[in-house]
């Protein structure tokens, strides 16, 4: 057997194996269910935040504050969920 015929046989075997692997992968990927992943909605909690920079000692006015949603794990400790306790302090 010459070197060139040996190379042709090896290349032919490699092509047949690659084609077989491609067909098997196509059949497998077609059989996998085509469900879209469901986005998980993180539970959030309302937190009162400042709309702008507030100087130290300034009296808080309602137009200086707004309520934003934070995820439970990123909520700052001691945060107020509503502005009602802030009105009682001032």
Task: Give me the secondary-structure topology.
Layout: H1 3-31, E1 44-50, E2 65-71, H2 84-89
General description of the model:
This protein has 90 residues and is α+β, with helices and mostly antiparallel strands. It folds into two domains: 1-35; 44-89, no CATH class. The protein has helices at 3-31, 84-89, and strands at 44-50, 65-71. It is rod-shaped, with a radius of gyration of 33 Å.
Total domain units: 2
Describe the sheet with the most strands.
Answer: 2 strands, antiparallel
Mean pLDDT: 85
Strand order of the largest sheet: 1-2
Number of strands: 2
Put simply, the count of helices is 2
How much strand content do the residues show? 15-25%
Task: Enumerate the spans where pLDDT stays under 50 for 5 or more consecutive residues.
Answer: none
Give the fraction of residues assigned to helices.
25-40%
| SSE class | alpha+beta
| Large-scale geometry | rod-shaped
Order of helices and strands: HEEH
Radius of gyration, rounded? 33 Å
User: Termini distance?
Assistant: 98 Å
In short:
With 90 residues, the protein is of the alpha+beta class.
Name a few traits of the molecule.
90 residues; alpha+beta; two-stranded antiparallel ribbon
């Amino acid at each position: 057997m010459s070197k060139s015929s040996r190379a042709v046989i090896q290349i032919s075997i490699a092509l047949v194996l690659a084609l077989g692997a491609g067909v098997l992968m196509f059949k497998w990927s077609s059989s996998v269910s085509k469900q879209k992943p469901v986005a998980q909605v993180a539970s959030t909690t309302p937190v009162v935040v400042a709309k702008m920079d507030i100087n130290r000692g300034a009296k808080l006015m309602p137009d200086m504050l707004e309520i934003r949603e934070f995820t439970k794990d990123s909520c700052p400790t001691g945060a107020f969920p509503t502005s009602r306790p802030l009105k009682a302090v001032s």
